[in-house]
Amino acid sequence: SPSRRDAPISPSRRSIPSASNRSFTLRRDSFVSSSANLRAHAGGDLLVTVADFLTSCSADQIRMAPDKFLNVCRVLKNEVMQLNAPIRGIAPLRAAVRKIQTSSEQLTPLHAEYLMLCLLAKQYKAGLSVLEDDIFEVDQPKDLFLYCYYGAMIYIGLKKFRKALELLHNAVTAPMSSLNAITVEAYKKYVLVSLIQSGQVPSFPKYTSSTAQRNLKNHTQIYVDLSTCYGTGSYSDLETFIQSNAEAFQTDNNFGLVKQVLSSMYKRNIQRLTQTYLTLSLEDIASSVQLNTPKEAEMHVLRMIEDGEIHATINQKDGMVSFNEDPEQYKSSEMVEHIDSSIQRLMALSKKLTSIDQNISCDHAFLMKVQSGRERARFDYDDFDSVPHKYF
Amino acid sequence: MDVDCEVSAAAAAAVTNGLGGGEQAAAAPVSADQLDVEAYAAQYSGRTRVARLLFIAERCGVEAIQLEALRMAHDEARAREDTVLYLDAVLKINSRLGPRYRHDQAWVDSVNRRAEQRKEKLETELNGYRTNLIKESIRMGYNDIGDFFYAHGHLSEAFKSYIRTRDYCTTSKHIVQMCMHVILVSIELGQFAHVTNYVSKAEQTPDTLDAVIVAKLRAAAGLANLETKKYKLAARKFLETGPELGSNYSEVIAPQDVAVYGALCALASFDRSELKSKVIDNINFRNFLELVPEVRELVNDFYASRYGSCLEHLEKLKPNLLLDIHLREHLGTLYNDIRHKAIIQYTLPFISVDLNTMASAFKSSVSMLEKELAALITENKIQARIDSHNKILYARHADQRNATFQRALQTGNEFERDIKAMLLRANLIKHDFNQKNWPGQRKMNL
């Protein structure tokens, strides 16, 4: 029988021969040698066995030997990729993520792998269940970048551009000492999604690393040019630009997004019209937005009404569009609930922020730094008000 | 208000021109019979007369007036023995006016020789004074040299000489004199920062100043503000200019100009209450406005909401104003501002406005008016929306309550997003997030 020289298993557990226990030790020792051995040990269908294990293993035991567990997951992932059936890896990996996390706020290396499988299998909604948890703890930088990138792609697939932008923003503004390929790709998508969402690309906030600020634009020049072209407001110019650079966009796998950027320009121009006009003929809309025929204008307006992007009614007889005010009166009970839940959420967040702030004030390293700073330069006491003096 | 609904094509065209063709270097549409070059030039003296004549000749499209202006410029330059301006005039005349107006190098040379001699004499005198260390003489010596340079068109040297008198001024009268000289040269050099500087220097002298000098200083300050595009300040300065100015400052500005500049800048930048109190009820300024009855009319029209006739007056004045050396560059902007102000004021008291009526009041077409209104709405200068189907403009007042809810929810979202991102970043930094740790090192906090 396999020896038990590695992971220390507590005596209580040793005495209970549960199925998961046995499988665990079986797997564990398999990996002491090599993952190829797993095939020999498992016999039959590797995939089913591993999947079973992942779904039924005990979280506590897993956490005692995380590296090995991660290896198992990796094997699973490679297997489903080889079989070209990424969808089969989704459920087991999701279970695995939940088991290895110490809290729902923690980012694990599995997150990125899981999201990648969801993307390949086009199961975006499955990805949402993991993305909905906010991440506050990260150990490995590489995990974060990939997580943000894949997560953003899932949100883009679901057309939730605002959430995608949040993730891409984190990837672009994360502290880094040297540029990595993931950040560059993330920035490309960041530009495109910003244009779709708000019509402009915001400048780097001041907490962005200097590496990113200096170098990102050099590696993504056509995207920067695209955003400048977008800013001119001319549909035909933008179209020409996109067509002349189509190959580059295709290579980056961004052509679909770029096409969405192009159609967003019409939307933006039409939305601007709603601020100025109460009613406007389809002809005038077509000419002011640079469309070719009133029929096309009608189509665009119709689509925007359906997507809820504007409030309007089309009068086909007169060829007129009436722009209406947002009917939301903020009086319904749903709205009250929404506001109430937002308030609760924000209060919780605020509390969390305060507690983290307090923790840092008590942190040894921070106090050392503050104290040495105080000795080096004669600052005013007022500068350090927030530091509790009794800890010196 | 004009109820005349017929929009003549010419008026419409004139109005379209009024929308800002002032910057074109091409010839302005001059109604030749209106500009009397002689009368115009008679208002000014000194170098500015020649400069203005040359300016008119350059910008005016009608050859007759051009030649007239050039002829007068030539005669004036010759009389003043100013070779620089003389040569300029001759060049532009290009032998079109006959033998008397051809390039006379002999005359130029003799004038230059005499000027050289005078200059040497002045310089020796000045050196004499400087060795004698008599302040007053040195000051007068520099002044004389400054005057000499100015008369012969060497403006930067004149400027330097006048500046140097500053060290030798003993009374406030001297200082004021120096300031006036510097202002004069700076205006011609186009350095209006200096003008503003020296105007305030002159105004700060302890002695009370002569009313004429005060008026001159105000006019000069107004001019400086106009040229630096500070139209509101310019209007204020011109409106404060006392009637004592008269024609005492003809080497810079004529009283008619004060009226025109002041009125236009005021119309473009003042609101109604300021317009009434500072322009219409201003007794001092009335003296100036009497000199240009058309301008007085159009100010009154504007205040009485007779926008159509006001804009018509403006159009009539436009060709001549384009020939004004100081006003030309700013005319387009000023006219635009006045027109926009008129439109905004027109729509202000109403809940709804019929665009057809408005178009006839402004003597323009409905479609053009609609475009102008759309532009003003986009710039947030008018709170309204256009019903393009029925051609009505509806005032629109944002619902405060809804807007507040919307803003609150949005702020909440942004707060949430920013705080979460910040907490994440703090965590990254806390783990001494460093890409050097990438290969291999794997820590999972358990």
From TrEMBL, chain A:
Where is the protein localized?
Answer: Cytoplasm; Nucleus
Q: What is its main location?
A: cytoplasm
Which GO CC terms are listed, alphabetically?
Answer: COP9 signalosome; cytoplasm
Q: Which residues form the PCI domain?
A: 160-328
UniProt keyword terms in alphabetical order: Cytoplasm, Nucleus, Signalosome
Record Pfam families: COP9_hel_rpt, PCI
What InterPro entries has UniProt attached to this entry? Answer: COP9_N (IPR055089), CSN3 (IPR050756), PCI_dom (IPR000717), WH_DNA-bd_sf (IPR036390)
Q: What's an example GO BP annotation here?
A: ubiquitin-dependent protein catabolic process
Which family, according to the similarity comment? Belongs to the CSN3 family.
Protein's name according to its UniProt entry: COP9 signalosome complex subunit 3
